[in-house]
Design a protein that fits this description.
By secondary structure, this protein is mostly helical. 60% of the residues lie in helices and 0% in strands.
Length: 70
């Protein structure tokens, strides 16, 4: 018995609206630049990349705990 071809589904993407940058997004950008500069300075100073990652992870974990009230 032959199968009927499946009906084609039409998918229409909604128009893309420009995203308004909030003041928080600007602050995140500044934070990113500061962290990147600090990482470059630490690497240039001879700190191992693993140490830098460990410090950033510990800070992120501590901040998460603080935000959750733990």
């Amino acid at each position: 018995m032959a199968r009927k071809p499946a009906a084609k589904q039409s998918v229409i993407d909604p128009p893309i609206e420009p995203v308004a940058l909030s003041p928080e997004a600007n602050e995140v950008g500044k934070l990113y630049v500061a962290i990147t500069a600090a990482l470059d300075t630490a690497k240039a100073g001879g700190l191992p990349q693993g140490f830098i990652v460990a410090v950033l992870h510990a800070l992120a974990l501590k901040e998460t705990q603080r935000l959750l009230g733990q």
